[in-house]
Amino acid sequence: MTVLKTSMRNFFAHKGRMALSAVAVLLSVAFVCGTLVFTDTMNTTFDKLFAVTSSDVTVSPKNADGEEDASRSGKPKTLPAGALQQVRAADGVQSAEGAVSSMSVTVVDADNKNVGATSGAPTIAGNWTKNDLRSMEVTSGHPPRGPTEIMVDADTADKHHLKIGDELRTIAVTGDFKAKISGIASFKVTNPGAAVVFLDTRTAQQQLLDRADAFTHLNVTATAGTSDETLKQTVAAELGGSYKLQTQAEAAEANEDEMGSFLDVMKYAMLGFAGIALLVGIFLIINTFSMLVAQRTREIGLMRAIGSSRKQVNRSVLVEALMLGVIGSLAGVAAGVGLAVGLMKLMGSMGMKLSTDDLTVNWTTPVIGMVLGIVVTVLAAYLPARRAGKVSPMAALRDAGTPADTKAGVVRAVLGTLLTGAGAAGLYLAAQADKASEGSLLLGGGVVLSLIGFVVVGPVLAGAVVRVLSAVVLRIFGPVGRMAERNALRNPRRTGATGAALMIGLALVACLSVVGSSMVASATEELDKTVGADFIMQSGSNDGSAIVPGAVKAMQNSPHLDHVTNYKIVDAKVTTPDGKTTSEELSAADPSYADDLSRETVSGELAAAYGKDAMSVGDIYAKRHGLKTGDELTVDFAAGRTATLKIGAITSDDVTIDKGAMYLDIATAAQYIPADRMPPNMLMFAKAADGKTDQAYSALKKSLADYPQYTVQDQTDFKQTLKDQIGQLLNIVYGLLALAIIVAVLGVVNTLALSVVERTREIGLMRAIGLSRRQLRRMIRLESVVIALFGALLGLGLGMGWGATAQRLLALEGLEVLEIPWPTIIAVFLGSAFVGLFAALGPAFRAGRMNVLNAIATD
């Protein structure tokens, strides 16, 4: 009981000094809880949607393509309309209806602007059915009654200011058509962002499937008293084993699993960054309690002198940490819910609508947040508590606030050097690896060991590094700069721990910057060496969607072009002479593709691969199966017949673009695949006529203006798009790492604030002998700057080492250029100085306001 009272008295006596540590706990726990609430809410939203959109039993083609394959072919798999009559004849069926649904469409308004979702969610076109009444209701107008009418969902109508009577154009690989909005339907549950349009059944069949006797699936409703499982069995008995049948629960579960895998990746990625912030927060907590213990050395000595045992002193500090963890975690859980709501609003602004009505806070979320925050805080305080327990009763005779021993020990130096050396060895071996899988494991081990090594050896490095930085940065400020240097060197443990917190975040920033810049530089070099085409046309979302015939014709008819190349992906099973069969994606293209994309061959000529009944293979595939030019392969085209093709060339796989590709002429593929089953173009390439590059580019843009879902890019555009995509990804990562850096800045603020308290008497004496307030504030700011630069120097150096090693592994995949983004590295280093200045504002202001006489009288 005495220990608890003492702990509470100390905690509330130093509540100001504990505040920033509590904020660090709060931020880390809030990020964890916010991530869990946000992803749970998304799961709830999709679960509700999937639960109401499925019928009692759904019948679909047994070999229905996945979303990726359907996107690539542009046509969903279908079942014959005759199956509907068979289903209606089954026992337990109250009603059955044919449904059409396609996600390979683009819908544009009268101004030719895409009215689809902008958040990555699909645009879905289909027929209006009774099953849709489970999830939607017509709130304005009426459902489509013929080929000239279309209905849209209310969210899409609001977003794009659509109203009844407006004309929309629907574009699909089967053709495009115009229709006027006849009605608007609202979702009864939250629509996460998909754009949905409805047609009448006959129009949907003709325009989306190009056939009037087929559906994509059947919706079956059970009679009263018939369970979904029983209905599934009776329908299956009627149809035989030709179709895929799912109950409402099974269909919902399948959709939930597909969406859940995506959400899990996002959740664990965000939790990873929360873990980094927690790691940084540990340094802040350790520093806080270490300094508090040092400042209370005399007080602890007195407690020991009057009979307190080591265990009681130790327990007293741990109880303070427990209280800090409880308060910080409670606030963090509440803040996490707020953060989740903020993320939902942010996603809403990007097009993914999430309703706060579905806000889901599972009981496990606050429990995880509380346990995590408390455990981390208590563990971080363990070493300072243990140090407090070792304080001797003789410490009661010391001056208050005098730390007993602040030097970095020999054991620390040796251990840190060994760990750093082991990490460096791991990184070196990773860079020398022949296989990416082996190298990745060595890279991971090297990163962890080198990071721990730098953390351990940081206080040892502090002396040398701070002296060098001070010679460059602080000496110009005269005596004030030298005092700032000595203050930073006074306690290497504290300087090392404070710098390490900043080091972790900046090391990751530097590593990712090097990797991102190297990827862009490598891809750019590869494009310069291999891509001979002047222009590339593809889906604007770069998702490999099929190119509709109208856009193909528009590009082919565009003026000022030397040639246009069609490029398709053809699925096939390839059997080699050794008797092994593999599923492959063959690149069927016009022979001009050999000019559009230069490929080195290790055997034969690429032109031969575009001859009659010929193809090429990559050298990795050739080595695996012992192939040489002239060998014959049995190719079973998924959409057609079986062919025997001769290997005309073996291409080098020492590339990034089209690595492992197998080429053949489109004309060869057309001999074995019926015209109505030939897949559409995935990409198109074009080369301008001599001296007509600018005119050709302008003409292509104009020719494809009616198809806003596609982009035409020259090589400069393509490189910039690549750079922008990697830049956007890095910006997201940097944004998530910002949390760890904020916590690290709080650590610098807390270290300085407690350091000012620790040096109260010293500051008073300096003020008494003539140090001005301005000089005092400058001294503290300079101390903060040199600590921040120390952490930045270690972090950037470590991160560049990680990034360079990672690039060597990427070189195994063809990304061979190492590029250090010096402008970014220099900007981050200089920015660290401003971070130091900012962190010192509060402590410097407090020190400047200190009463000189009271400071001198402090005991």
Automatic annotation (TrEMBL):
The entry's keywords: Cell membrane, Membrane, Transmembrane, Transmembrane helix
Record region (Disordered): 58-82
Domain MacB-like periplasmic core: from-to ranges: 19-236, 498-699
UniProt protein name: ABC transporter permease
Location(s) in or outside the cell: Cell membrane
Top-level taxon in the UniProt lineage: Bacteria
Residue ranges of the TM segments: 268-294, 317-343, 363-385, 410-431, 451-477, 498-521, 732-757, 782-802, 822-841
Organism: Streptomyces triticagri
Domain ABC3 transporter permease C-terminal, first and last residues per copy: 273-393, 736-851
High-level lineage: Bacteria, Bacillati, Actinomycetota, Actinomycetes, Kitasatosporales
Record membrane topology: Multi-pass membrane protein
Single Gene Ontology MF annotation: transmembrane transporter activity
